[in-house]
Write a structure and sequence with these properties.
The structure is a homotetramer. With about 300 residues, chain A is mostly beta strands. Chain A has 2 helices and 21 strands. Chain A is about 10% helix and about 35% strand.
Chain lengths: ~300, ~300, ~300, ~300
């Protein structure tokens, strides 16, 4: 189980069909750099084009179609002291009748203060002068090569992952993706220093990061949509429009998980979901919206509950 | 500010156009009984028909069109020791391709144990034998007479409230509704002992309650959709299909709130929502789905933040 | 089978719970007046308020819950020489990103020329100086009292009919509605001199009409959504948001029709729909959108095809 | 302007990034073969895998990013005498509550009779024994390389075209696609002998064809979504879920067309659409649904109407 340090030179705006930049073994750890959604790196230089240029792909030995690639997000350290967002909110998240009253969208710079623990607007209006938000790093876009030899823009997402913009894809989470190609071909990028639910302004606080992650191949574990595990929770993510369909994908995937790995039947799984499930609207902005279906571990009947993997 | 005890004799399956059962003053408290979604009361007797028979309407003196009626949910005490739910999950919350594999829906009885602090299935399968959920009472359906002299089924919801099935409409929350008729005509019912996000099985743990609530007329405060306030948070609820539109209503209403009452402009409100908003999918089952747009009070810039009313 | 001439004095902005203005027998014909969507009558005087003030309700003897009320639209004669529409298109029918570039909505007056056979803008821009559209009268909003003692705004629609804005609800069509109350309580209004698919500008050419219709009670024929029959076609209408759900309702209803009345099983009905069905997007503007599922009579296998009723 | 005869040897299940199989000049005509949606060719042999294996890509000299590639569908001749469909209807086109009552999906063989002018089920039930449908050939899936170096599965569609399953993409129609790569890279396949609106059973009558088409580069004509022109009509196609968004794309594109090429302003274009537009639901089955926004040429004000190109 090696620890690789990888400095990216090329970046990809589509996921799939790229040439691997590094081959790692199952269990290896990688320390690498991600640039921001518009291609600006740690030094503030634009080294790639939008949207969401990816670092990678990483070829993970042993990952074969039908397996699951697990990526433990070990650490995300902002690699510069500024980020950016847009305002006002996107036109599709408010009533159509009021979109014409929204001012034109403009970009704002944020400063990551106090060792990167809080963010504040660099040029704040009076009302926001003393307003800060905690820095909670997350990966906006990551995933593996999609099925059917596709190469899909990093603007959107699907069963293979992609631009899901889900705040729980954060340090401490083990993200899981269905492998469609030998080696999985893992890409990552589009780190956010912070983001509210739904990504209502169309971005999180976009900045560059040093990211450390550890791969793991779950042999023969066949999944349909991205999943995640934290110490306290398990979750699935569905990506589609409208939100209704994203929710259907996520709910179906969580039911599959409960029946396959936790020994529940459909009625038992329904009781658990009916009383204990929580949904997160990850993004309602990208071409595919993302909804997470989340369950506290303590809500899962203990009879056959697996220990954290 | 009186305290009324009201025992309902008649119940309504539509909200609007009913004759008031009690007239109260602004600030009065009412202690009353709600029966369950199928009309079963505290003694287990069916005294009304489905869906969601309502207690009320209560005429609140001083509430006029253009005002807001605030209802503080002071207390909800289950009035019997059993509730019920259905399983499996509703056919519209999973991928259409798998709905044919769902078993037929059946009703399960729950027992409210330990002084009503936890609920467990009365006849649990082996896997759920030791599985309990905490009792967290909430009001599934409540609201005021809708605009335009409508009378709308308690199966659905709208700007006037209705069958929103949102777990945060719970003791400690001040719910707010836009008044369309003199006296507001407030209805309530459909209490749940517990419910997960989305109401995936089509119900919470349905039971009867003793409910205590306090009314307050917010003169001249014009709102568009139901709102709520807790000690720590403010939220709005949008009701529509698909979820996308429910979210648009809720988001628009919260932006209106931030700009009207908290002195933010659209760009400032967008920054706050962009980093700090949280969405809850209240129900994805009823004819109108419900999405809540929620904001921690501490995320609201303090410059002109109002104290809790 | 009498022929009644009825001059309305009162109008309703909600469907359901109104007092009958006239009682007719099964098979009777009624000649009456409808006013426009804003309440302007044949003389251009505003005699009722918006939205869509209805003439009626008519009590049809013999119509009982579980029956179908059929209304043959015999004739629609514009009762004045002007109508109106709004422009530009509604904000929800174009990409959200371009709604802010739409000019403010304004009202345009149309003149019904040549004995009411064509319509043209009263004050046309140069480009539209010689542009006319054929007058094709249709009923925008009609239906019967909804189930569950509801009274629902004429802005929207449901299984009972309502504001469907479907151009095929025109002279020569027999419209069918599910009866929920004794006497059915039939309302009608909101006539259009013309309307494109989707009602993209939010209205047809709104004007007042003399309408002649003939009622018929189809005893024991239980239907779920509005239906229609012309000489050449049969159709069903589903009302909901999003369009996907309106389509599901309409398709389900047409399948039910084919299996119940035409002796097809689900596979046979699927073959017919798969090759021969046509969809119309009636309106994509009202609170509930309307989609029609339409089938040429000649596409229906002849083995048990019923003659036109 | 040459006429090429091209016999495909390789087929693609994704659109984009393929190596050109033939280079043609602007104005050239190509006669080629398409195989069916599962890869069966004129002799009934499976020569490629699903979904929708494409013939091509064809490199069209002179087509550059920012141009439009027009493809005149000159002729489609079925190259075998059988086709196939599935039944019953797809689970997502009916109310979720009834999907569990649908029988399992099975494949049916159709015979193309009378010189390919009508189709009938090879093994028809009694009810469908004498039931035939006219053969109306159409291209289910075609388009050009998408933007951003993507390669996208032929199961779905987007601004570049793809699996739109629109019956009006038929002989006599000039289809237009936005060019993203030099040479456009045009793919085609998935021919249907017939298909109803919505593609409710998930396919048309799938068979192989000899297709003749003529290319034309519209230099500097920048379009956003696929368009089409027939002698009598112009139309645009939007691809997305839900239908509402597909409709928004198509409507926006048609408005852009009217304002750019026909000299109308937004209000004038709105009047035309408001009274004269027609929508077709092309497919409500694929990952992206397709809606066409269609306008009779005679409804377009004549002041600056272009002659057919």
């Amino acid at each position: 189980m090696s620890r690789h340090v990888f400095l990216p030179k090329v970046f990809h705006n589509a996921i799939g069909l790229g040439d691997p930049v590094l081959t790692v073994d199952d269990g290896d750890t990688v320390v690498t750099q991600t640039i921001d959604a518009w291609g600006f790196d740690a030094s503030g230089e634009q080294v790639a084009i939008r949207p969401n240029p990816m670092t990678g792909p990483f070829f993970v030995r042993g990952a074969e179609p039908g397996d699951t690639l697990e990526v433990m997000i070990d650490r995300m350290t902002p690699s510069r002291t500024t980020g950016w967002t847009f305002a006002p909110v996107a036109s599709n998240v408010v009533d159509p009748a009021i979109t014409s009253s929204l001012p034109e969208r403009g970009r704002s710079i944020w400063t990551l203060d106090h060792g990167g623990r809080v963010a504040r607007l660099a040029e704040a209006s009076a009302a926001l002068q003393h307003w800060t938000v905690p820095v909670r790093p997350m990966i906006g876009c990551f995933g593996v090569a999609p099925a059917l030899n596709q190469a899909i823009s990093t603007a959107t997402s699907g069963p293979y992952g992609g631009n899901m913009d889900y705040p729980l894809f954060a340090p401490g989470t083990r993200a899981q993706f269905p492998v469609s190609l030998s080696g999985a071909l893992f890409y990552l990028g589009d780190g956010h220093a912070s983001q509210g639910d739904g990504e209502l302004v169309g971005n999180g606080i976009e900045t560059s990061f040093e990211v450390e992650f550890t791969t793991r191949v779950l042999k023969g574990r066949r999944i349909g949509w991205p999943r995640g595990e934290t110490l306290d929770e398990i979750f699935t993510v569905g990506n589609a429009r409208p939100l209704d369909q994203a929710l259907q994908h996520a709910t179906t995937e969580l039911i599959n998980w409960l029946t396959t790995d936790f020994g529940l039947d459909l009625v038992e799984a329904s009781h658990v979901l009916g009383q204990c499930v929580q949904f997160d609207i990850a993004n309602v902005y990208n071409p595919a919206y993302s909804v997470a279906c989340r369950l506290p571990r303590k809500a899962i009947p203990s009879i056959r509950q697996k220990a954290p993997l």
